[in-house]
Each structure stands twice: as structure tokens, then as C-alpha cells.
TrEMBL record:
Taxonomy, superkingdom: Bacteria
Pfam families: DndB
Xref: InterPro entries: DGQHR-contain_dom, DNA_S_mod_DndB
Taxonomic source organism: Clostridium punense
The protein, known as: DGQHR domain-containing protein
């Protein structure tokens, strides 16, 4: 395959602008989506069903722990297909960004780049070369399921990043979508798993992401499986909301962001105390959550009458307890209003405790027992946002006799 190119230099980076015939590009694209968190059989079935739906449309895609892209939205590519097939004046004026691994092709520049000058020329690509999408997956997927894909005169403009590592692809995707396109912030933060940077801001976000990931993955954590790491699916709060909330409180107490173990210890203990004090309103995904037989019987009744499940003969039904607390009992403690307010409270408690000591944290949090109804308090249910979170904070501070 021969394609023209223009060489572009920006700062210390070199990339190439080129074009492809849509029909020639289709078989060389590696569609993937980032999915490091689906572990249960139910989650695996869901994303396998999703993969099958795209396969029926002619799009081969796979889940990857180290993928850069978010999932392709089927409704969105259907709209792009319709846009291309039903409008005579429809076209894609912007370039897609593609990563190209040329590490296995020795002497690539000498063998494949036919330079007419220092700035432009022709590339004769190897017959087996493939491309990883860095940006533009919905445009390409929509094009590939449309009638336009086989039109000889339909070309796609592209930016090629030769020998782009997964770190480079992740950073470019984050830079493009984090600064220009309203992509879910949780996805942006999650990509910092793959970013190596000396930039202090990037390092801070990566530290907060790793903190969030550890709290979500640790079976002993009060936030175990309660965080929507990619901003969708199961969970009570999103990774984006967690990171933004934690970042704000750490700034207020001048916590050393590089000491991730210390941050983890303090937050783990602090949140675990809330979980233990308010068991009925903070889902504990473990059977020992029910040291109160009335709570157990109430939940067992819900399973039996509503879901037709039997907790006595199937202990695995405890996994439904989160849904019961958050959606049936409508607890706000582990949702935006509740979690936001207790994170705003954290600096006040931390400044009194100073050390990661469970007993000291618990003695303070336990003072709130039976004094807040996290499901029905008027402040929690009358609205959302920072204003409501601060109102709840002031109420808690008053109960604790803290000065505002």
C-alpha cells in the first residue's frame, strides 16, 4: 500500500499527515476498548454480548486491560452511518489519529519512506501492517458499517504516530479528549494507569487514580466495588467524583500527595468508620454486615418477596445488598450528596486525629450515630451539588460541636 505523507515536527515530536482509501484502511484497524474491571461472570457475559453486537455489524473489537479507547457507542456509529449514507454532502474534514508499531520492521525509514524532500514523500507500507486507533474510533466504525467504505473516491485523512507506545497513545488520547472533547472524566483519569510523566499535575492525577483503584479493588476496603471506575456501570460514585473530592480535601490540609500509603491509610480508616457506624446506609459487601438480626431479616424479606431469591440457601445473594441499600432504601451516604459532604468533613476530623488510628477516628464518627438519616434528610433529598454537600457538612459540624 502506497500513501503520500507530509512530515510534521512539533517541539520534540515527529508525526506524519496522510490519507487512506476507506476500503484499504478497514482491514488494518485494531478496534479495542479499555476494560480492566469486568471480573464477574455476569460482567463478562455483558461485554461478550456487546462484542457480538458489533461483530454482526462487521466490526471486530476486543476488550483490553491496557486499551486506550472507551467503548464504541452503537447508537452513535449508527447515526454516523446514517449521516454518511443519507446525506450527499456529508464528509469527515478532521483527521483520525493512528498509532503504528514499526519496531519489527528493521530499517523502516530506509526501506519504506520514499522522500522527495525533507518534508514530504511517499510511504510504501508493509502488507501486514495494522493501526491502533488513538482518536476517531466512532468516525471510523461508523464509516466501516456504511455504504461509503467501498467507494473508491472516499478517502480518510489521518495522522500517523510511528512507534507510538501505549504510554504515548494514552497521553495523546487524554490530551485530545481531556482538553477539547467532553469525554467522561472517569475514562480520562483511568488512562493515567498508562501514562509515565514528569509533569507534577499528571503525577498527582496518577496518584489519585491509583488510590481510587486500590480502594475499589481491595476486598477489605469500604469502597470495594463501589466506584464506577470508567464512569458507568455498577457502583455508587464515579472515579471522577472521587478524585475531584479527594484532591480538594488534600489541598485544604496540605497533605503530601506523593505519600500515597499515608493517604490510603487515613481515608481507608475514615471511610471504614462511616461504614461501620452506618451499616444499614452504607452497603457492606460481606456477610458479617448483619450483626443485627432485624437488618438481616429485612434484607432477606426483600430478596424473597421482590427478587424471588433465598438468602438462607444461597449466601452469594449478599451481592445484591448494594442495590438494596442504594436503590430500595435510597441511602444517600455513598452517593454524591452524602459522600461529598463526608469528604468535606474529612479535614476537620483529620486535623483533630492527625494519625491513622482507627479508634480515634471511630470515636469521632460514632458521635453521629442515630443523628443523621442518610436516606430521608431534607438537605440530602432536596437537591444536588456542592451547595447541598456544604449544607450537610454544616449540619454534621454542628452535631460534632466543631466551629465552622
Amino acid at each position: 500500500m502506497k500513501i503520500p505523507y507530509i512530515k510534521i515536527v512539533q517541539k520534540n515530536e515527529v508525526f506524519y499527515i496522510t490519507k487512506f482509501k476507506a476500503s484499504e484502511l478497514k482491514g488494518r484497524i485494531n478496534f479495542h476498548f479499555r476494560e480492566p474491571y469486568s471480573n464477574t461472570p455476569e460482567e463478562v457475559i455483558k461485554y461478550n454480548d456487546y462484542i457480538d453486537k458489533l461483530k454482526k455489524k462487521g466490526i471486530e473489537i476486543n476488550a483490553s486491560d491496557e486499551g486506550v479507547q472507551r467503548r464504541i457507542q452503537i447508537s452513535r456509529i449508527n447515526k454516523i452511518q446514517q449521516f454518511l449514507d443519507e446525506n450527499d454532502d456529508s464528509y469527515f474534514p478532521t483527521s483520525v489519529v493512528l498509532g503504528v508499531d514499526i519496531s519489527k520492521y528493521e530499517g523502516f525509514e530506509q526501506s519504506y519512506l520514499k522522500m522527495e524532500s525533507n518534508d514530504f514523500g511517499e510511504i510504501e507500507l508493509p502488507h501486514d501492517i495494522t493501526f491502533q486507533i488513538v482518536d476517531g474510533q466512532h468516525r471510523l466504525a461508523g464509516l466501516f458499517i456504511s455504504d461509503m467504505v467501498n467507494k473508491e473516491d472516499f478517502e480518510v485523512s489521518a495522522v500517523l504516530l510511528f512507534n507510538a507506545t501505549k504510554y504515548t497513545c494514552a497521553k495523546v488520547f487524554a490530551d485530545i479528549n481531556g482538553n477539547q472533547t467532553p469525554v467522561n472524566k472517569s475514562v480520562i483519569y483511568d488512562l493515567f494507569d498508562l501514562v509515565n510523566s514528569t509533569n507534577s499535575k499528571s503525577n498527582k492525577i496518577k496518584t489519585l487514580h491509583m488510590l481510587c483503584k486500590k480502594l475499589n479493588n481491595d476486598p477489605e476496603s469500604p469502597l470495594f466495588h463501589h466506584i464506577k471506575m470508567l464512569g458507568i456501570g455498577g457502583g455508587a460514585i464515579s472515579q471522577a467524583f472521587f478524585i475531584q473530592s479527594v484532591d480538594e480535601v488534600l489541598k485544604s490540609i496540605n497533605f503530601d500527595i506523593s505519600n500515597i500509603q499515608s493517604i490510603y491509610s487515613h481515608l481507608f480508616i475514615y471511610l471504614k468508620c462511616f461504614q461501620r457506624v452506618f451499616k444499614k446506609q452504607w452497603p457492606v459487601i460481606e456477610s458479617k454486615a448483619f450483626d443485627d438480626i432485624s437488618d438481616f431479616n429485612e434484607y432477606a424479606s426483600y430478596l424473597s418477596e421482590v427478587l424471588n431469591k433465598d438468602i438462607y440457601n444461597n449466601p452469594n445473594q449478599f451481592i445484591d445488598y448494594s442495590n438494596y441499600v442504594l436503590k430500595i432504601q435510597r441511602s444517600q451516604l455513598l452517593k454524591t450528596n452524602g459522600f461529598g459532604s463526608i469528604m468535606l468533613l474529612f479535614p476537620f476530623v483529620y486535623n483533630e486525629v492527625k494519625e491513622a488510628n482507627y479508634e480515634k477516628y471511630f470515636n469521632i464518627i460514632n458521635s453521629l450515630k442515630d443523628k443523621i438519616d442518610w436516606a430521608n434528610d431534607e438537605i440530602l433529598i432536596q437537591g444536588t451539588g456542592k451547595k447541598n454537600q456544604k449544607k450537610m457538612l454544616y449540619k454534621i459540624l454542628k452535631i460534632l460541636n466543631y466551629s465552622i
